[in-house]
Design brief:
Blueprint: H1 3-14, E1 19-28, H2 36-54, E2 59-70, E3 73-83, H3 92-106, H4 120-139, H5 143-155, E4 160-164, E5 167-174, E6 177-184, E7 188-192, H6 195-205, H7 207-214, H8 221-231
Antiparallel strand pairs: 1-3, 2-3, 4-5, 5-6, 6-7
Helix pairs in contact: 5-8
């Protein structure tokens, strides 16, 4: 078995473990916003586990919850439950002994935090941020609204990026037009000045990730665009 196949097989075995990690609280600095590095760490971690989940190896339940806010940081808890109930009982001890170290490796970029301070001032800030987030989400009530959120974000420095063993793709805004730059085995560069044409390309480009992350569920077109929006790297 080659190294890649062996590695995947090992991860698949380990990830069928039943582990419930609750109240893992970590702090993201930069005031009311997580840094791009924090966002990328969480996104890649979640995508990595979702890839294993959609293959039918194990069932995954995730909950990322906004717990509290202070002027200089936000507090979140991440809860995860992975079940090996469908695996052979004879393997349970192995899963139990090895899963902890793998989860520690995957979460090595997270910063554990003490419990947030209890303050009415902080409670007001928390409620304010929750209301702002809910209001912003309510604005994304149509495909057109989501697309209108993507366009100015890209023009302000956001991007879509992929990377794999054959190369990768960067989608961004430069010199007054949208750019798609492919590198690796099949290098190419295209530019788009028409927004409709660009959005059509973006939808097609993201189709693989949409299918991969939705698993067996068939997403509506608006939920597909919501997932595309969430894939965007803010900076």
């Amino acid at each position: 078995m080659n190294l890649l196949a062996h590695t995947f097989a090992l991860l698949a075995t380990l990830c069928t473990a039943m582990v419930s990690l609750t109240a893992i609280v970590f702090c993201m600095a930069m005031g009311a916003n997580a840094s791009p590095a924090d966002i990328r760490a969480l996104r890649f971690w979640m995508i990595g586990l979702s890839l294993l989940g959609v293959t039918g190896i194990a069932d995954y339940d995730f909950l990322l919850r906004f717990e509290a806010a202070e002027p200089t940081c936000n507090y979140y808890s991440f809860h995860m439950h992975v079940s090996w109930a469908d695996q052979a009982p004879s393997n349970s001890d192995y899963y139990r002994k090895t899963s902890g170290s793998w989860f520690a490796l995957w979460m090595r970029d997270f910063i554990a935090a003490d419990h947030p301070r209890d303050s009415e001032c902080f409670s007001q800030l928390y409620r304010q941020l929750c209301e702002e987030a809910l209001n912003d989400d309510q604005q994304l009530d149509s495909i057109a609204a989501i697309q209108l959120a993507i366009i100015p974000a890209l023009q302000s420095g956001a991007s879509f990026c992929t990377s794999h063993k054959e190369g990768g793709t960067n989608i961004y805004w430069k010199s007054g037009r949208f750019m798609r730059s492919d590198y690796g085995d099949y290098p190419d560069e295209r530019h788009f000045e028409d927004k409709t044409e660009f959005l059509r390309m973006l939808r097609q480009f993201c189709q693989f990730d949409v299918t991969r992350n939705s698993g067996k569920d068939q997403l509506s077109e608006i939920d597909t665009w919501r997932l595309i929006l969430r894939r965007m790297d803010p900076k």
